[in-house]
Design a protein that fits this description.
Blueprint (H helix, E strand, L loop, with lengths): L3 H8 L7 H10 L5 H38 L4 H9 L2 H34 L4
Length: about 120
């Protein structure tokens, strides 16, 4: 028979991982276990892949949309600005910023893991 503590832990609502949740944990939590670090890295790597694929789909459509915009304006700069104001353009900007944020978090988690490995070998 399972202990009450184990039962309660297993049946608590699970907090889903999100990019924002991981960022909040990294901001507020002093120490992470190596298992948490690896779980976060795995999640972020998968998110990076899917967001990258979504960005690729937008970038494949961009030339067609941009070309149509360019026909009605006098400069490439104006066409870029008008493209950025479209749904596709806004989504492209958001995806690029999310990908950059994920890169920074992955870098921070890699550093954390390297320090933990050094501590485990009494190098720090």
């Amino acid at each position: 028979m399972k202990a009450a503590k184990d039962f309660l832990q297993e049946n608590q609502p699970k907090k889903e991982l999100t990019i924002e949740r991981i960022a909040e944990i990294l901001k507020t939590k002093d120490e992470l276990t190596p298992q948490e670090v690896m779980k976060f890295r795995e999640f972020l790597a998968a998110e990076y892949f899917y967001l990258g694929m979504e960005l690729a789909m937008i970038l494949m459509k961009k030339p067609e949309v941009w070309k149509n915009i360019r026909k009605s304006v006098k400069s490439d700069r104006k066409a870029d600005m008008e493209y950025d104001a479209t749904e596709w353009g806004k989504k492209e900007i958001v995806l690029k910023m999310k990908l950059k944020g994920i890169e920074k978090m992955l870098s921070a988690l890699r550093s954390t893991l390297e320090i933990q490995q050094g501590e485990a070998m009494n190098l720090y």
